[in-house]
Amino acid sequence: MTIHSADEFVRLRYSDDPANYQRAAGEEAAVDVWHDVINRYPDARMWVAQNKTVPLEILAILVSDADAEVRRMVVMKRKLTPDLLDQLAMDDDESIRMRVAMHKNVAEETLQRLRDDSWDRIREVVTERLGDSN
C-alpha cells in the first residue's frame, strides 16, 4: 500500500487504530506527498522522519529542522549519508552529536571534528571509534 496524500498520512498517524498508525510508520509515499506533509503539517514532521521508507531527499530537509525532536529522529535513521551526518555533527544539541558519533555511516573526518566536542562523553566515544592511532 501507499500513502497518497498529506491528509491521508496525518489521518493515519493520529488515528486511534494501531493498524493505521503502522501504515503511517511503514508505508511509502511520493516525495511530493512528504513535501506537502512538511509544509502543511509542521507538527507531523517528526512522524515523517520516523517513517521507515522516507527518502533521503526528505531527510536532507529535516536535518536542519528547527525542532530538535525532529533532528533526533533523523539522526537515528540507518540510511543517513556521511554528508547528512556531517551536518548533524554541528548541531547545538549534544544528544544529536552523540548519535552522530555512534552512527555506523559517519565519516572519519566527521569523527575527527567531533574529537574536540564540548561534551566529554562524545570525545570518549570518538576516541574509542577512532582508536589510539589517531
Please describe what this structure looks like:
This is Leucine rich repeat variant. The chain has a two-stranded parallel sheet. The mean pLDDT is 97. The protein has two domains: 1-62, no CATH class; 66-134, no CATH class. The protein starts with a strand and ends with a helix. Helix 8 (94-102) runs parallel beside helix 10 (120-130) and helix 9 (108-114) runs antiparallel to helix 10. The chain has ten helices and two strands; from the N terminus they run E-H-H-E-H-H-H-H-H-H-H-H. The chain is an all-alpha fold.
Helical content class: 55-70%
Identify low-pLDDT runs.
none
Radius of gyration equals: 17 Å
Q: Mean pLDDT, rounded to whole units?
A: 97
Distance between the termini: 48 Å
Instruction: For the largest sheet, list the strands in their spatial order.
Output: 1-2
Q: What percent of residues are in strands?
A: under 5%
Q: Into how many domains do the coordinates divide?
A: 2
Question: What general form does the structure show?
Answer: elongated
Q: Helices and strands, in N-to-C order?
A: EHHEHHHHHHHH
Q: DSSP helix count?
A: 10
Structural class: mainly alpha
Largest sheet: 2 strands, parallel
Q: What's the total number of strands?
A: 2
InterPro entries: ARM-like, ARM-type_fold
Protein name: Leucine rich repeat variant
Question: Which key features would you list for this structure?
Answer:
single chain, mainly alpha, two-stranded parallel ribbon, 2 strands, elongated, ARM-type_fold, ARM-like, Leucine rich repeat variant
List the helices and strands and how they pair.
Blueprint: E1 2-3, H1 6-13, H2 18-26, E2 28-29, H3 31-40, H4 45-50, H5 56-62, H6 68-75, H7 82-88, H8 94-102, H9 108-114, H10 120-130
Parallel strand pairs: 1-2
Helix pairs in contact: 1-2, 1-3, 6-8, 8-10, 9-10
